[in-house]
Design a protein that fits this description.
alpha/beta; Rossmann fold; 2 domains; five-stranded parallel sheet
Length: 184
């Protein structure tokens, strides 16, 4: 009886160990699939990301509030969140597994416009795309209780192809006077 229990425990341990390793291997592969060496690599290998929307494109100029910006847009219900950022910037571990990361020099003149145009051209017709920079957050009526897809469904039912939005800049006029966070 004791040998049966030992064999059973060993078999159970082996199966659990194998399952965890396979799950980790899947996570590692999935994480690798969500990382792109540049815009062209993303458009070639990640085009399926643009097939289901809405899609949020987040352009990181620096690492200020980057993780919170990405999480905020995930929580709003974007089916895909794509972060365009230099390879020198890091992401929190949970975001590495849920955000599509594109290595990209966002500070180059015209870089953001070039990327948005290229993604827009590659996206499925009628696909909703949204873009912003790190430390910018999308808010819309009833966003506390409604996902972005519900807001877009309303706009689609109203036969609207675009919508008017506003960006409220919370940075202080004088960053020398308020250097810590730059907020007024």
């Amino acid at each position: 009886m004791r040998s049966k229990l030992t064999d059973s425990a060993a078999k159970s341990f082996y199966q659990n160990f194998r399952f965890r390793n396979e799950a980790k291997r899947f996570d590692d592969q999935n994480e690798a699939l969500m990382q792109y060496s540049g815009l062209h690599d993303f458009l070639a290998k990640g085009k399926a990301v643009l097939g289901k929307g809405p899609v949020a494109l987040i352009f990181a100029e620096d690492d200020v509030e980057l993780d919170t910006t990405l999480r905020h847009h995930q929580q709003l219900g974007f089916r895909a969140v794509v972060a365009f950022m230099p390879d020198t910037m890091g992401l929190a571990g949970d975001l590495n597994k849920s955000v599509h990361r594109v290595q990209y020099d966002t500070l180059r003149e015209g870089a953001v416009q070039q990327a948005v145009k290229a993604v827009n051209d590659a996206a499925v017709g009628g696909q909703w795309l949204y873009y912003c920079y790190n430390a910018e957050y999308l808010f819309y009526p009833f966003c506390e209780t409604r996902l972005v897809g519900e807001m877009l469904a309303f706009h689609t039912e109203e036969r609207r192809d675009a919508m008017l939005t506003y960006v409220v800049d919370l940075y202080a006029d004088d960053l020398d006077q308020y250097p810590r966070r730059g907020l007024a």
